[in-house]
Specification:
The structure holds two protein chains of two kinds. By secondary structure, chain A is an all-alpha fold. Chain A contains eight helices and no strands. Chain A is elongated, with a radius of gyration of 25 Å. Chain B contains nine helices and no strands. The chains are: A mainly alpha, B mainly alpha.
Chain lengths: 197, 165
């Protein structure tokens, strides 16, 4: 049995499907993609609705004179903004890897490259982000700018360091797990496919 | 272009090439429900990509790219589009489409052998069965013509040995 024998079979089966299924293209395009990548995109899109709500809430909060001079509040604002940028970056990554009109090889390699670069960037970004939080917190405490942190400042610097390091390690672990959960299976499958080229 | 006009243009173009999608679904999904899901996913992805379609490539070439990419490398639920063929997932409707009952068993064997190929090989078989030129297959898969010829001859050998065993 040769491959050529399948030509007519495939044609007949497609014709049969065409005759029996009666798909309405106009109706189908009203539906949303069922792919988990589309679900992830929808989830990340929420960022654009939630961020303005946070902004309104924060503006309302810092209008009070006792809050406006608190560096910790400004620190939270900056961190929220950075988080928003990170979500936006992820959103565009997910959006761009959903494009399916490139050559099969090109599309696959592009996805692998983007996902790996995104993971590397995100991982480094998170570490720098956490180190900056720790440094800012230490500066605030060193200059006794906010009284709320005084009890923590009273603790020995070595104990504080011992607490900061595992916290950064745990955040790094969760970041890796989250990437693995969101893209891991997809990336592994893409690599498997790329190996078949 | 207005959304409505764009939709009408899309539907008109797709309707003329619907068989192509059904064939891809036949090779990449193994139950009616899976094929229906894959058909819908391909149409949605085609619609999403349609505003970016430029007439520099033939419409069918562009369609093959989107449809094959969706079938093989979209982030998928394993449940819907199996990566490999389980015995229970093999097509059982061969007799409905083949009128040559003497060949039915052999055809089923061939179909099952194709199911054992990897995703890229399946795409190549699909395009080969569609009588696409190596030039066009290169445009779709992004694999050089020389490499395609080598792959195709290996696939034929692989299928021969799978169906003979």
């Amino acid at each position: 049995m040769e491959l050529e024998n399948l030509k007519s079979l495939l044609n007949e089966s497609a014709l049969k499907d065409h005759a029996t299924k009666k798909n309405n293209i106009m109706e189908l395009i009203q539906n949303k993609s069922k792919g988990p990548l589309a679900a992830l995109e929808a989830k990340l899109k929420w960022n654009f609705y939630l961020f303005p709500v946070f902004i309104i809430f924060i503006i309302d909060f810092i209008k009070k004179p006792e809050h406006i001079h608190r560096p910790s509040i400004w620190m939270v604002i900056i961190l929220l903004f950075v988080t928003f940028c990170d979500f936006t970056y992820n959103y565009f990554i997910v959006k761009s890897i959903q494009r399916k009109d490139a050559t099969v090889t090109g599309s696959m390699l592009k996805q692998i490259r983007k996902l790996e670069a995104s993971f590397k960037w995100h991982n480094n970004f998170l570490k720098i982000y956490l180190v900056i939080i720790v440094v800012l917190l230490e500066i605030i405490m060193f200059y006794h700018i906010e009284k709320d942190f005084e009890p923590w400042y009273a603790v020995s610097i070595w104990i504080r360091i011992v607490v900061y390091i595992p916290l950064i390690a745990v955040a790094d672990f969760f970041n890796r797990s989250s990437f693995q959960k969101q893209y891991g299976q997809h990336l592994a499958n893409l690599k498997k496919l790329a190996a078949q080229l | 272009m207005q959304e409505k006009a764009l939709k009408e243009d899309f539907v008109k173009k797709i309707t003329g090439h619907e068989l192509l999608i059904y064939k891809i679904c036949r090779l990449y999904a193994y139950t009616d429900a899976d094929r229906q899901d894959l058909f819908q996913e391909i149409v949605i992805q085609l619609w999403r990509a349609f505003p970016g379609y430029r007439a520099d490539a033939a419409f069918s070439t562009w369609m093959y790219r989107v449809a094959i990419n969706t079938s093989i490398s979209g982030l998928r639920k394993k449940k819907i589009f199996s990566y490999s063929v389980e015995p229970g997932n093999l097509p059982t409707q061969i007799s409905d489409v083949s009128y040559n009952y003497e060949n039915e068993e052999k055809l089923q064997m061939l179909y099952s052998a194709i199911g054992k190929l990897n995703e890229i090989e399946k795409a190549l078989v699909m395009l080969y069965l569609e009588d696409r030129s190596y030039n066009e297959i290169e445009e779709i898969l992004g694999i050089t013509e020389g490499a395609l010829r080598v792959k195709m001859s290996r696939i034929k050998e692989k299928l021969r040995s799978l169906t003979n065993n």
